[in-house]
Specification:
mainly alpha; 4 helices
Length: 89
């Protein structure tokens, strides 16, 4: 809910898609909200929830170096895909 709504949505989509592809985690979808850290952003922005420590299975995954690497790879790939989309490449 800021001047970047369309870009925020595209960035969120690309990141969500790449993270779930990289980790094979359940895709819980993209959500929106009026978080202060996002509403005042001077550029496209998203918040990423990587998992839930209250879930013992996710807690174990999040503690794994391999899973963390896949998360980071998905994040980076999502940013690259978003950048290519807005640049028209």
């Amino acid at each position: 809910n800021n001047a970047w709504d369309v870009d925020n949505a595209r960035l969120a989509y690309e990141m969500q898609k790449r993270i779930t592809d990289a980790t094979r985690a359940e895709d819980r979808g993209v959500k929106s909200g009026r978080f202060v850290v996002l509403t005042g952003s001077p550029c496209p922005a998203v918040l990423v929830e990587m998992g839930f420590l209250t879930n013992s299975v996710e807690e174990r995954r999040l503690g794994s170096d391999a899973y963390q690497t896949n998360l980071v790879r998905g994040l980076a790939d999502g940013i690259v895909r978003y950048t290519r989309c807005v640049q028209g490449n």
